[in-house]
Structure formats: C-alpha cells, structure tokens
Amino acid sequence: MPPPPLDTGSVVAAYLAASLAIGVAVKDKAATLKGFLVAHRSMRDWMLAFTFGATYFSSVVMIVGSSWAYAWGPLSLVIPLANIAIGALLAFIVVGERVNKLSRRYDALTIPELVARLHGEEGLQKLLGVIVSLGLLLYLVTVAGGVAVVLSSALHIGLGVSAAIIAAVLAGYVALGGMYSVVLTDVLQGVIMASIVGVVAFLALGKAGPASLDSVAAKPPSTLLIVDLALLTSLAVWGLPQLLNRFYTVPSTRAVRRATGLATFFAFIVALGSFLAGLAAHQLASPSKPIDALPSLVASLLGEPGLAILAAAVLAAAMSTADSVALTAASAIVYDAIGSRDPGKLRVASAGIVMAATLAAIAVLSLPKTIYMALTGVFKAGWSLTAGALLVPILAAIMGHRDPVAAKVSAIAGATAALTITATRVATSLAHVKPPIALLDVFMLSFTITITISAIAYIATSLARRASA
Description:
Elements lengths: L7 H18 L7 H6 L6 H12 L2 H14 L5 H28 L5 H9 L2 H34 L3 H50 L14 H10 L8 H4 L8 H32 L8 H46 L4 H23 L3 H30 L5 H27 L6 H8 L1 H23 L1
C-alpha cells in the first residue's frame, strides 16, 4: 500500500510540534541564568555552525533573495558572495573567536555586557541594552508578521489564528528553554532549510546549466543598491547581538574554529543556492512575479511534496530568526537595561515580547496598504538601527581600542543616523513626494552611511579626548 501523500499541513504541524517538544525537554537545563542565556557554554561546534546559519539566513534570503536574482540577474550574486565571505567566514575568523574568548574571560552573558566591560563603563551596558531592545523589537514585528503570513498560507487558515499559533509555539519553547531551545530548534530549522535549498539549486543547475547565469535582468539594479544590500546582509552581522551571542554558547575558541568551515558551507548552500535558484527560474519556471520565483521553481522540479517541504523550510527560516531576536531582546531589556538577574523574569519577558510583537504585526498587516508599507519600512530598520549602533563599539572593543565615551557617542550617532534616514524615507512615502536624486542615493546607501557616521563619531571623539588629555 503506497504511503499517504506528503501535504503541507502535516509537515508544518510536525515541525511545530517538534519545536515545542524541544522546549519542554530542555526546560530544566535553562533554569539558571547561564543556562537560559548562554546554554552553560556547552554546545558542540557543529551546533554553533547550524544555529548561526539558521539565525543569519531567514526566509528573506530564500524568498526575497531568489526574487532579487530573478529580477536583477547575475549582478545580484554579489550579495550571497558577500554573505559567504564576510557574513560567515570572516565573521567567525575576525569576530567569533575573539567574542568567545573575551566573553569567557570577562564572564559576560550578553553582547552589551561584554562591550561595557571591555570599555570599562557600566553605563554603556544600559545604553546599548536600550538601543538593542528598541532595534530588535522593531525588527521582531516584521519577522513575526512574516511567520504568521507563511503559516496562514501553508495551512489555509485565518491570519489571526495563524498568529495565535505562532505566538504560542514561539513563546512556549523560547520561554521554557531559553538558549538551549533556540540552539536546538535552530539545528532542526537549519537542516530543513539547507536540504530544500540545496536539492532545488542542484536540480535546477543540472537542468538549466550555465544558461541560468546568462539570464537578462527584468529590472536592471542600481549598483549602489547592490553594494549597500551586500554590506547590510553581511558586514551588519558583525554588529548584531542575536548572532554574536551564538559564540557564547561553545566552551572554547577551538570549537569556534572547528565550526567555521561548516558555517561557511551552510552559507554557501542557503545563500548562494537561493540566488542561483532565482536565476534558474527564468529557464525552468514561469512565475507570475519575481517573489514567486522559488515556489514556482520548486513546484516545477519537485511538485506538491516539494512545496510542502518548502513551506516548512520558509516557516523554519522565519522562526529561527524570530526566536533568536525575541531571546536577545528580552535579555537586552531585563538583563542589560533594567539590571535584573532573575531567570524567571527573563522567561516572562521572552514570552511577552513574542506575543506583543505578533499582535503588533497583525495590527500593522490590517492597515491600508500605503500605511502598512511605510510602517514595514520602520520595522525593517530595526536591523540597521541595531547593527549601526553596535558594530563600531563592538569591533573597537574586541580589537583592543577601548574608549567608553567614544563608544557611547558612536552608538548614539549610528542609532540616530539609522532612525533619521528611516523617518525621512517614511515621511516622503506617506506624503507621496518624489525625493531628489541625492536623497534617493542616501536611501540606497542607508546602511553604509549609518556605519560611516558611527565610525567617524568614534574616531573624532577618541581623537578629541586624546588631544585634551
């Protein structure tokens, strides 16, 4: 008797049940502060590679990345190549080993705490905690909305019901198991993501061959935009606490070193594979619009079973980002900004943050399209806000240049630049005003400009303090 057909509902339901079961299984291990925040630094090297990759690459790289490749052509490959080289390989070599070593030496449990101790300024932890919590809460609303939409589409249920399920599952396993849950579910999520993208990219390239690289861009991209997106999705990783805190979870720099190759290979499969699939869709599928490039290709190559696994993979990719952001935001509020060391409060904050972000996401999705699009831009800016404020102070600290005043000024300058550019973009969008060319260039180079302003602020403040000493 043939096995029953693989349908989207059963695959997704099994994945959600497995995620919640993991949280229940590791609940006792996460009862202490170190257990909840850094999993007692007991994770294996291969777990580090998977949790880093699954958190790094959300559903954006799979669905949006493939649509960029479909619309923009081969030039878009600059983005995944930067993700592999800068966001994965160099992140582990330049930042990962130092973060792991210093976090153990200073017994730091969060990124703001480590930066504050390296710079020798306790107040810096509270400042960075406030910035991180604001940036990640904004970003989490976008991620939670995306997860709810994916689940709603996969199970053919209402958006409200979908949001309730997502909030319950995410809040459940993050609050129960803390970093243990996040790392272990990320491993499951990473396997699902890499498997479907790897298989689809391999089959697509086998059929389309080199012709996929000759696809003509449906909409020629701006080189400035490509460069900024490449930096935003790779260099920004060096300043994102939800990714850097992964290096806290292993016991030694040797474990980080051993994980480097696997993490880079994961990035190669998921990032480059998604973009190559988007290019191959020109020859092998007929998507109605660029955003449908990957689903159309999967349907063409693997049929309904492939679409079921893709739905689970997209959901897994989004959830692996959402759980990490929620846990990091909770620690930023409770541990860094408020100063509480109570694991119980961290559990409550984690669950509350997930539920609040999901409710906010559904509220935003129900607004008129113009307002919804404008607000989505604000929430997406949370990534730039967080990385723009933390990247320079973190790099300065781990590289041995420690100046607490310069770190504060740099963080505030980066955060202000990110918020100002976002506010200007939203204002012009809502007012239906066509921005001048110079302002459009600022929008396209928003992350690059933010980091540049933060770096200039750090250097100028440090030099001024030396001159006055």
